Amino acid sequence: MRDQRRIDRAKPSTKEWRDRVDASYPAGDTSLSDNARDYRYIAVHNDTQQLAETLAVIMQAIPEIYGKRPDSVT
User: For residue 70, what pLDDT is reported?
Assistant: First the structure.
């Protein structure tokens, strides 16, 4: 799903580039979440989510900015 979104967007991309980016960020890397100090780390596993679903997860994770989770995000 994620690969298809990358292919469909207007920004040029190649399989080699996508593989290189993915290899740079291994799934087991927890350095950001382990070292969160002045920022909030939010992990969103959105391989099967539509954009509105991903935004809803982010908005729910930061209620002091976005308030309570909306029924739908447009």
Answer: 54
Q: State the greatest distance between any 2 C-alpha atoms of the chain, in Å, as a whole number.
A: 40
Grouping H, G, I as helix, E, B as strand and the rest as coil, residue 58 is helix
Q: Cα dist. 66→3, 38, 63, 69, 72 in Å?
A: 29, 19, 5, 8, 13
CA torsion, ordered 59, 65, 70, 74, to nearest 10 deg = -70
One-letter amino acid at 11 equals K
For residue 38, give the amino acid letter.
D
Segments in the chain below pLDDT 50: 74
Q: Give residue 52's pLDDT.
A: 92
